[in-house]
Write a structure and sequence with these properties.
Elements (H helix, E strand, L loop, with lengths): L2 H8 L1 H31 L7 H5 L2 H27 L19 H4 L11 H4 L3 H6 L2 H31 L7 H4 L3 H27 L23
């Protein structure tokens, strides 16, 4: 197998989903532009260009409101599964392993192996941060995209108010408005439902060959076992 083929094989999960993300983002931009321009034409206003739409608040708020809910899902799931359990689910740790686990189980400090990351071998703040780095980064992505949603949402909301000859809202007024929380909560509820559904359905249903499923023949009560 060539080096390029090996790279594609070893990184296919990230590459395929990354390419699918870019394709759907392009599709969202095209359909969003058409929708906005249909509304502008119906209101006897000048349509926007592709560049104007991609750099405008309408496109940005739609993208960021979806990103923040996705990263919220991962952040809560990563931290929640440290302590929360679901009997029979491969999405849960074994029922006797709730909590951050011992240094031996986590292979840190004196229990690190030869191929352990360097920061797993150190002590103090660096190991504390590294041992929680995945959840921290997901939290930062969530907070950053949520803040971006609030700013771009304010701009998009005020553009509609100005077209209706209404006074614009300040950022602080907008983040307390029904529009902001409607956009936010309708995404949060769907993400939380998806996590809960995956946790409980994977107790009884199977997908052969997937690490998100237990082996097809595993007992329903088997917990923390991946296929």
């Amino acid at each position: 197998m060539s080096r390029a083929s090996r790279f594609l094989h070893d990184n296919s999960l990230t590459l395929v989903f990354g390419a699918a993300f870019l394709l759907t983002l392009v599709g969202q931009a095209a359909s969003g532009l058409a929708d906005v321009n249909n509304q502008l034409v119906a209101a006897d206003l000048q349509p926007v260009s592709v560049a104007g739409y991609l750099t405008g608040s309408d496109f940005a708020v739609d993208v960021t409101e979806n990103w923040q809910s996705e990263y919220l899902q991962f952040f809560l799931y990563i931290f929640g599964t440290v302590w929360l359990l679901q009997r029979g689910s491969p999405e849960s740790k074994s029922l006797d392993r709730a909590g951050p686990e011992s240094d031996r189980e986590q292979k840190v400090g004196a229990h690190a192996t030869g191929d352990s990351p360097r920061w797993a071998r150190v002590t103090g703040l660096r190991r504390l941060v590294y041992s929680r780095s995945l959840g921290i980064v997901m939290a930062l992505f969530f907070l950053g995209s949520w803040a971006s949603q609030s700013v771009t949402g304010t701009s998009a909301f005020n553009a509609g108010r100005l077209r209706d000859l209404q006074a614009p809202l300040t950022w602080s007024d907008y983040v307390l408005s029904a529009d902001f929380w409607n956009r936010t909560l309708q995404n949060w509820q769907s993400e939380l439902l998806a996590v809960a559904s995956m946790a409980i359905l994977s107790v009884y249903l199977r997908q052969r060959g997937s690490p998100e499923s237990k082996p097809v023949g595993a007992a329903h009560t088997s917990t923390g076992v991946e296929g």
